[in-house]
Design brief:
Shape: globular
Helix content: under 10%
Strand content: over 45%
Strand order of the largest sheet: 1-24-23-22
CATH class: Mainly Beta
Radius of gyration: 17 Å
Structural class: mainly beta
Number of domains: 1
Length: 282
């Protein structure tokens, strides 16, 4: 198949780019100010403190512009932007990065953390960080102090995080024999409210979708879902190999998914994927 024919097939299925050159890509993040995607590379053991991990910078079309943009990390995973800084979950600490310089400026230790996975920024400048192995969620205050915020099996081994208003949405991996379901926690009371009426999958990435609802990846089943506010889930893509923590450009409706099983990052045009039935807004 020629390159032109391959591009035509990709566009017909909603694929806008498919980029290689990564080493166990785990998380993607869109930076609208810089018009760039950032991708974390584990590059070894997911719990290895070996200094081999790095971040890659892609341009707005998904092409690699700086393959080793930020180096000297261990096994970086979830990413978040807040107040001019980029944050990366890195096993038991959060690396604070100056995105203009492309350098780590400090590291925030998270006491008690086992396997930090995703980071979500709140409007007040605080951060929430999931610990998928430790079964906990930590909060980092605006002045950089980390403490345990919630812990227990009731969190279902939290993975993907996103803050919307006074709610912390959680896409959990699930317990040993029971897959996770999408839910949210009231940030003030920590009370849990389920979005998914039943277990959905081994959930990883989580992003709010344009037009309402949520984009969620299931790493085990190789699926990309859109989950509506009533909990109904529509498969947008399947057959993916290790879809992890997705990024999202809401303006173009581009969904960017790191594929851990292929060392590949793909971008999909949401408008060309299956359209879920209408539902109530969040």
């Amino acid at each position: 198949m020629s390159a032109a024919a391959a591009l035509a097939v990709g566009l017909a299925t909603g694929t806008v780019f498919s980029t290689t050159g990564f080493s166990e890509p785990e998380s993607a993040l869109w930076d609208p100010g810089a018009k760039a995607f950032y991708v974390s590379n584990i590059a070894g053991r997911p719990d290895g403190k070996d200094g081999k991990g790095w971040l890659t910078r892609l341009d707005e079309l998904g092409r690699i512009s700086n393959p080793s943009w930020v180096s000297g990390l261990n096994a970086p995973k979830g990413l978040a932007l807040s107040r001019g800084r980029l944050y990366a979950a890195d096993i038991d600490l959060v690396a604070v990065i100056d995105p203009d310089a492309g350098k780590v400026i400090t590291r925030i230790p998270v006491p008690g953390a086992v396997f930090l996975n995703d980071v979500a920024a709140a409007p007040d400048g605080s951060l929430f960080v999931s610990d998928s192995v430790g079964g906990a969620i930590y909060r980092i205050s605006p002045d950089g102090k980390a403490q345990e915020w919630a812990k227990g099996d009731w969190l279902e081994n939290p993975n993907g995080l996103s803050v919307r208003g006074g709610r912390l949405y959680v896409a959990p991996w699930g317990l040993k024999v029971v897959p996770g379901r999408l839910y949210w926690l009231d940030i003030r009371t920590k009370k849990r409210y389920d979005v998914s009426p039943s277990p959905l999958g081994r959930l990883d990435g989580l992003e709010p979708a344009s037009g309402g609802g949520w984009l969620v990846t299931d790493a085990e089943k190789g699926r990309l879902y859109r989950v509506d506010s009533d909990g109904s889930a529509t498969v947008l893509k399947e057959g993916l190999k290790g879809p992890a923590d997705l990024g999202y450009d809401a303006k173009r409706r581009w969904i960017v998914v790191p594929l851990l099983g292929e060392d590949l990052v793909e971008g999909y045009d949401q408008t060309k994927l299956p359209v879920p039935p209408p539902g109530r807004p969040f």
